[in-house]
Design a protein that fits this description.
Bound molecules: fe (ii) ion
Number of domains: 2
CATH superfamily of the largest domain: Hypothetical protein af1432
Radius of gyration: 22 Å
Helix content: 55-70%
Structural class: mainly alpha
Strand content: under 5%
Number of strands: 2
CATH class of the largest domain: Mainly Alpha
CATH architecture of the largest domain: Orthogonal Bundle
Length: about 450
Amino acid sequence: MRSQPVRNFRGGYGYMTIRVDQLIRAIGTALDIIESGMFGVRTNHGKRVAVLCAAMGRTLGMNESAVAALSTCALFHDSALTEYMLYLTEQDGKAGLFLHCIYGQRNVDLLPLPGDTDGVVLYHHERADGTGAFGRREGNFPVGAALIAAADTLDLNFPLQSVSGKYLEKLRAHIASEAGKAFTRDAVEAALNVLDEDMLEQLRDEHIRETSEKLIPPWFAGMEDTAAFRLAALAARIIDYKSTFTRQHSMQIANRAWLMAGYCNYTPEGRAQLYLAAALHDLGKLATPLHILEKPGALTTEEFDIIKDHARGTHELLSTVGGMDDICRWASEHHEKLDGKGYPFGRGADDLDYNSRLLCCLDIYQGVCESRPYHPSRGHRETMEILLGMADKGLVDADIARDLDQCMGSWSERCLPPPPQAAEAVDAVLGGLPHPLPDQRAR
Ligand SMILES: [Fe+2]
Ligand SMILES: [Fe+2]
Ligand SMILES: [Fe+2]
Ligand SMILES: [Fe+2]
């Protein structure tokens, strides 16, 4: 038996580690892209809020673990936004405000963060004077939530990524004038401590990525750690909830990959890697416009090119994460075909290894099973006929297709078991809708 992987927020190494903080940032980047696409929010919003919170937390004396936890909460403060958007299309907008706070908190609760994050996302729309989302007053919600609320409001109301030095005094005066009103006194003190010309420079779009790498503490986790599994499951949920038609797509593919890796006797570590690749394979889809994802009928060539970009997007995002080179390759090759005519790279049989071929087959299998605007859902037999037909044409691996036939045939859609490390995250996904509402507003 080998020893347990080591998790270390300050840079220790275990048996095959990944940079969880970099994965969190990659998911955050994807979230920033949808947020600016859907709501017109400024580019890199989440990253700027996280950087400001890390700096403000430090100035208030938080230790590095607390800063790591706070900056993750800040990056994910609007992570329930795909769920929220879906809900808004079905219900009224006011409920959506509460819900993205509640579900955003549930999302960060799934991660084994190194500091206390109780209520930090839940109360990110509170105001010191008690006129915020849940009506909590200063002192009745956590300092971390107050810092996110201040950074969030400032980034929404001021173009922090381009504010020039001469407006700095105006900005600082505004912050000071909101003490006890919009912002808590702690948040005002912290914001005034950190917002200087140098910080404004670091918040600019061209520097923000570098700044976030510098200011947000590194977090390493073993491949089989709960952190890696839950983060992948959480990302899968955010991706899946982007469109009504894909509500369980990534999650189901991840569970199928987990099953297949067990069927093929992978090592625990190899199984974990495949699960992560499967859960994250469509990460780049967060940048694909919804009207194209949900278009009924045939796509134009331009629209299809935009769809195809999602696989390249997955590559761009995951290639920034240390320890995930193989995972990045498998995930971004899920639309490659053995004849070299797939995308995004046009790689063929000589380049595609077993896991890339498997993810391609699983993506097709799951896609055919799902109901889409252009086709109804299909059962196992009909799905396999389509997949085996593609194998006959030399597009996908025939042995893998036959293995899938064996392995998947005995599992119905509903009882695909997730890996134990991700079970809680998956339960939260399945319990995601319908949304409960807070019974009463706390004062
Ligand atoms: Fe929010
Ligand atoms: Fe925000
Ligand atoms: Fe895809
Ligand atoms: Fe997919």
